[in-house]
Design a protein that fits this description.
The chain has 291 residues and is of the alpha/beta class. It folds into 2 domains: 3-161 and 197-218, Rossmann fold (3-Layer(aba) Sandwich); 170-195 and 223-264 and 279-287, Alpha-Beta Complex (UDP-galactose 4-epimerase, domain 1). Helix content is 39%, strand content 18%. The protein contains 10 helices and 13 strands. It has helices spanning 12-21, 51-61, 75-80, 82-103, 134-149, 173-181, 199-212, 227-238, 268-273, 280-287; strands at 3-7, 26-31, 41-45, 65-68, 107-112, 154-158, 161-162, 185-189, 193-194, 197-198, 215-218, 225-226, 244-248. Helix 5 links the parallel strand 5 and strand 6 (154-158). Helix 4 (82-103) packs parallel to helix 5 and helix 8 (227-238) crosses helix 10 (280-287). The longest helix has 22 residues, at 82-103.
């Protein structure tokens, strides 16, 4: 089996990716803070911001391909810790692309729908980027830097993701559902729209892109939905009829990082390659009894 290096294997997306990739690849996963045990995956602690350590990682593993999911992906944290987040989100990403170019191996990178300002959705791969947060700016710099160093990189813009994850990296729905089960009321945006997919679907899209894409591709879902309607459908499907959910607007909640109103992705390019997200209802039904 060929060797696949997955950075950020302890994160939500990386964990999901390892579960699927190990069926066809010999998978090596990296973590920095949180080690996770994944059957059939060799875990390595690595500081990806240390270039010499990154070089040793490639020399030791000799991967046949790399999927780079490791990131500081919390927009509010990036906004208040610009240098620390840039080191992993931009510098490390560009160095990984450079090493993949040096070894002439396929490389896929997880970018974000937050490279857009949310004013002209749905967005195609060719639409101009215009991030409103520092996190979005860092991902734009990473996209540009990686493609300059290695034009064969598959730059995968990911949407909002949900589902199962490692113990240290659950998706955003778990803490929300816990709050609702405790009888708390949740206020969710009616004026923020995304095209969500499950971590499982996103992982399959990344593996497809790794082998079939050079340049940018969108891996969003088929449905545009607000945060409020997303959660209303989820609690309906999993049978939480007493959930207390109320509407709010982005302007009602102050956060460190600005939020775009609608970063829905047009993923028709990926659909044509065989990327097949399920409907949200189907994804939620698969979670019933498990979340």
């Amino acid at each position: 089996m060929k060797k696949l290096l997955i950075t950020g294997s302890s994160g939500f997306l990386g964990w999901n990716l390892c579960q699927i990739a190990k069926q066809k690849w010999q998978v090596y996963g990296t973590h920095f803070t949180h080690r996770v045990e994944i059957t059939g995956v060799k875990q390595l602690r690595s500081d990806l911001t240390d270039f010499q350590e990154l070089q040793r990682l490639f020399q030791e593993i000799k991967p046949d391909a790399v999927i780079h999911t490791a990131a500081q992906s919390q927009p509010n944290y990036c906004q208040t810790h610009p240098q620390e987040s840039r080191a992993i989100n931009v510098t490390a990403s560009c160095n990984i692309a450079g090493l993949c170019a040096y070894y002439s191996i396929p490389c896929a990178f997880t970018s974000t729908d937050l490279v857009f300002d949310g004013l002209n959705a749905p967005y195609r791969e060719t639409d101009p980027v215009s991030p409103v947060s520092l996190y979005g700016e860092q991902k734009v710099l990473a996209e540009q830097g990686m493609l300059e160093r290695y034009p064969l990189t598959a730059v995968c813009r990911m949407p909002l993701m949900f589902g199962f994850g490692a113990p240290a990296a659950k998706s955003f729905i778990q803490p929300m559902l816990r709050s609702l089960r405790e009888g708390q009321e949740l206020a969710l945006f009616v004026d923020e729209f995304r095209t969500p997919v499950s971590g499982n679907t996103a992982a399959r899209g990344l593996l497809l892109a790794l082998e079939n894409v050079q340049g940018r591709i969108h891996l969003g879902g088929k449905e545009r939905v607000s945060r409020y309607d997303f959660m209303r459908l989820l609690v309906e499907v999993i049978g939480m009829s007493d959930a207390k959910i109320k509407m709010c607007r982005q302007a009602d909640i102050k956060m460190a990082a600005p939020r775009p109103p609608d970063v829905s992705l047009d993923s028709s390019k990926a659909f044509a390659l065989g990327y097949q997200p399920l409907s949200l209802r189907e994804e939620f039904e698969a979670l019933r009894g498990k979340v």
